[in-house]
């Protein structure tokens, strides 16, 4: 090799080595923020993040409760806790998560096959089909509920869920007294970690109007921070301590 090419060859070898090292080296973990500024209508809050974690030795999962196995970096609080449950949150929240495995935290009850023994119920009803089905003036012959009742329902015809539940509760009130806890005796749930279908709208099961399924960001912070301070009897935790966190 000609001498004049030796320096060029050395430089290229170094650059190639750095490139390979960049690909094989593990990703650097995100540095812990020193302070976090929260903006809200009650006045800005400066949260000393690193002080709570390093000096007070509070583990990440104490506040970032999505860290179930300790292997994932904490998600931003706003991924789950929105400022308001508006259309922007519904449309954009999925982009806050690194992968679909987080979907099961909210979409947790896709119903599979119904555990319903029709022959047994015929026997219980002593072959009186109208014990479950409508009278002859509505349906001349018993038919599937879904032939008339849709998933959404209408003001005139209730949803198939509500129609079936209203009829079943006449005999199985013991199964319904605990609300959603009573789904498993009748419904076989999908394994949501491997589920590939469309997700059922929240309101199909969660029907309490005005009730947020996830705490908004204000309530989440207040509950998390205030509960900890109240237990320790230290720092701002009283009702009139707002100015100790919120800046004017």
UniProtKB/TrEMBL annotation:
<keyword id="KW-0249">Electron transport</keyword>
<dbReference type="GO" id="GO:0020037">
    <property type="term" value="F:heme binding"/>
</dbReference>
<dbReference type="InterPro" id="IPR020942">
    <property type="entry name" value="Cyt_c_III_dom"/>
</dbReference>
<keyword id="KW-0813">Transport</keyword>
<dbReference type="Pfam" id="PF02085">
    <property type="entry name" value="Cytochrom_CIII"/>
</dbReference>
<feature type="domain" description="Class III cytochrome C">
    <location>
        <begin position="113"/>
        <end position="187"/>
    </location>
</feature>
<dbReference type="GO" id="GO:0009055">
    <property type="term" value="F:electron transfer activity"/>
</dbReference>
<dbReference type="GO" id="GO:0046872">
    <property type="term" value="F:metal ion binding"/>
</dbReference>
<keyword id="KW-0479">Metal-binding</keyword>
<protein>
    <submittedName>
        <fullName>Cytochrome c family protein</fullName>
    </submittedName>
</protein>
<keyword id="KW-0349">Heme</keyword>
<keyword id="KW-0408">Iron</keyword>
<dbReference type="InterPro" id="IPR036280">
    <property type="entry name" value="Multihaem_cyt_sf"/>
</dbReference>
<feature type="domain" description="Class III cytochrome C">
    <location>
        <begin position="40"/>
        <end position="110"/>
    </location>
</feature>
